[in-house]
Amino acid sequence: MLECDVLVIGCGPAGAAAARAAALKGAKTVVIEKNRTIGVPVRCAEGIGAYLLGKVPFRIPRNKFRWSIKGMRFYSDGLCLERTGSFWEGFTLDRDTFDQWLASLAAEAGAQILTETNAVSAEMHGDIVRTIEAVSKDRKLTIAAKSVVAADGPSSTMAEVMGFDVKRRNVGHVYSIEYSSAGCGNDHFEEIYLGDFTSVGYGYVFPKGGGVVNIGVGGEFDETRIRERFEEFVEMPGLRKKLAGARQGIEKSGPCPLDGYPKAVKGNVILAGDAANQNFKPFLEGVLPAVICGTMAGEVAAESNGMPERIAEFENRLDASLGELFAASDAAYAEMSRLFHSKVPIKHLLITGLSSGLLQLEELKSLEEVDATTLKKLLTARLNRG
Ligand SMILES: Cc1cc2nc3c(=O)[nH]c(=O)nc-3n(C[C@H](O)[C@H](O)[C@H](O)COP(=O)(O)OP(=O)(O)OC[C@H]3O[C@@H](n4cnc5c(N)ncnc54)[C@H](O)[C@@H]3O)c2cc1C
Fold first, then answer.
1. How many CA atoms lie within 13 A of 99 on its CB side?
2. Which CATH class is domain 2-46+93-169+259-311?
3. CATH 3.40.50.2300, applies to 171-256
4. 283-300 confidence digits (pLDDT tens)
5. What atom of ligand 1 comes closest to residue 39's alpha carbon?
6. Neighbours of 278 (CB within 10 A)
7. Cα of 94 to ligand 1 centre, how many Å?
8. Do 163 and 38 form a contact (C-beta atoms < 8 A)?
């Protein structure tokens, strides 16, 4: 039996950040990761928004960012809306090396990292987790911990095992491919596309520099049909031109939790990152939110000594830090989802207007009857006003 103060399940951005934070607080910390190599396979488009960096509680050195992003372009129905300014700036990462760097910070802080170790069940006493059973390199491993952080990602099984009501109603999918030798890989703008080809989701082009680019479609797609959507997307004339001569590389697809963020504490357990839908919709921005929430989870887990009334403090810190942004994102997504499934002829233009910050949530309904030309004029006028 392995004993520790804080057990972290999963060593993605949320888990690594939680383990680092708990270890820095002096807690004996163990983090288990089911994969052999941290950060692999990559399931990400690898873009991050610079606006969140101020909330990350430690400095991320510039060399951890691969490529700078100066803004975003939104395309729908022949319209292109280019947004620049600090809110729209960001970076592209190499997620594998980024996640490995985060794990190295946890190890430097004193956390013990066990790879190829898969958590499978929990022994509970009421709401309190006494031990976690894991399979570590084909051997059974029992881990006793005072507090547990479940950071096992969008397909989290441990949250349910530990008694959380996290039944997923809306799990979307993202189909993503990395291309090399693509001219558009050297652009400094991320692009989002909405239209009939995407129906209940969006297409994206996220450049990484050096001719490398992540291209994908994401949203409320049935997993079995999403590849067809992707193929339709890359066959669009604009995309074909961008990808002329480019070579397809690795696939980076994965599930995306589209539900709102649930209560993330129970007994001596905290859920962090995608395990608790702590990400921004609809474009599933979850890397930095996972680092921010993971850090708070690790700190509270260590400070609480496993006492449920002190574990509950996580919710207060989450609310004070990202709560408003999560609530706004969840409300916006609920409206986008309604529009995706509606028969409103200009729905993709409305969602584009909302995503690009040129329309407010409250005005969407009143604009549903407007024709496409009028709405395009309104969006262009607002864009030019700045
Ligand atoms: C295709 C795609 C594109 C995306 N693009 C972006 C983007 O451009 N920008 C952005 O910010 N976000 C993006 N996201 C979202 C982002 O990847 C996630 O929000 C982020 O990875 C969440 O971090 P996490 O640590 O919570 O979960 P994860 O990164 O999923 O990490 C969870 C870890 O737990 C491990 N694990 C799972 N179960 C167990 C278990 N039982 N025992 C032990 N270990 C376990 C997993 O192996 C994994 O390493 C994208 C997601 C997808 C699917």
1. 22
2. alpha beta
3. no
4. 889 999 999 999 999 999
5. 49
6. 26
7. 14
8. no
